[in-house]
């Protein structure tokens, strides 16, 4: 295993090269070993991040993203519960996408990321649920019908809660098996602290029957104590060869894992990867030549332009900061392209969010069940609708904070709220067979406060008596608009997620999402806004405020931002709340901004040119 000293020695030379050359010029001076070294630090695999030099090297490494090799392969993380699969997933992705906790069974649905990096290789990684043994028994048909219907129907046959959970864990096992079948390479993880258990042996035997051994990398995690080192000999009994000893928590052993994967990739891709010079003598000679040349250039530059160098260094820092910002923005679009629309599916527990996504994509992708709290992570799923690519994110049910007593549920709820903030459009799923609750209004209010356009879907409509359907819809609309006036004029889509005859409704929902996204990005010319304002003011002028006793003279209205639409009204510093509401409703009706939050600010005449 490479020591930290090795990387520091390499990086000191790299830092010297970068201090003597501009960023683009210095890249071509780096040999493959140094490029890999920067890639190593760019993906959370180096010494502690608190070291200022390491932060500097990671910023430099971001410029080398174009040098990373896209392998187009998929890696599945497999193992029993609580062996560190989700932690490994987060390390490879470089973000905390998967929930991590000491409690076994945190992960249930497959979590997939197309932007995992190990060394200078980019690939797709799948986090899977922990396997508690590999069983050949499939869930019974009545259990399948139970889980599908119970999400949307309270009239289903009553089953014991343990039977439902048994079904859920069977579905988790099926999803993990499906991930293994779809993956090119398997990272089979074991916990050396606990030693090798019967479950580990069952999983290993099943993997050997399913995949070729050359495509299975055995990872012995939690190798950070003396007891772990004593147990490492037990890992060899699994029959999968020499294990890679890592500690995901302490970021140890990733270079060995990188080396093992590098040897495996040509067999997966069926072609050799591009390689640079690897002869150590040649590299050493090249390093010495570079250092000597840079030393001479640096000395000459310091003698002639010492003052100019200082200003250039400051400009270089500014350029590097700007480049870092742009690069971080581009990194966010590795998976999500410009035309992709991120849609958050949110709501109270057990209203049918997962079932709705399964129905939209026409695939049994997410685990559903008759009990609350099955979904824990935020699971992104791709949906292609009329040549538009949507990223639907299933979220955990959001309850009142006072009702949350389990730590895992609190983590899940925070993840759901974070998903809302990162989304483009929010679909709030209601239980159409019940009245609108205060918690439904809170969830919708949170999305509106975050500035997201809304689609309201009333699920479980099959439970509503057809003779009372129209009355129930009007009742829901009245409650919704009275609790949340900003949603006046918005439609409520009614459907039953388990009813496959509602294809037209699903198509309408897709069109509504696209339309809401366009409204959210709408930009209205100032001339149209001012013309509309003058007509509105002539019809209903603003009232005088008690503080000034003079009627304000509204000059003009302009839009200053989108996502959500933001407007500035010139000519008044304050207006009554009811008149502000009148203006916002007028904007929404005139320019078709229903379901989209509107921000309106006031600015006096004296501040017009400020």
TrEMBL record:
Tagged with keyword GTP-binding: yes
Record key words, sorted: GTP-binding, Nucleotide-binding, Repeat, Ribosome biogenesis
Domain GTPase Der C-terminal KH-domain-like: 524-603
Record-linked InterPro entries: GTP-bd, GTPase_Der, KH_dom-like, KH_dom-like_a/b, P-loop_NTPase, Small_GTP-bd
Superkingdom classification of source: Eukaryota
A Gene Ontology biological process term: ribosome biogenesis
Compositional bias per record (Basic and acidic residues), positions renumbered to this chain: 320-329
Region (Disordered): 302-333
Domain G: from-to ranges: 74-222, 342-460
Gene3D superfamilies: 3.30.300.20, P-loop containing nucleotide triphosphate hydrolases (3.40.50.300)
GO molecular function: GTP binding
PANTHER family: GTPASE DER
NCBIfam families from the UniProt entry: GTPase_EngA (TIGR03594), small_GTP (TIGR00231)
Similarity-based family: Belongs to the TRAFAC class TrmE-Era-EngA-EngB-Septin-like GTPase superfamily. EngA (Der) GTPase family.
Designated name of the protein: GTPase Der
UniProt organism field: Galdieria partita
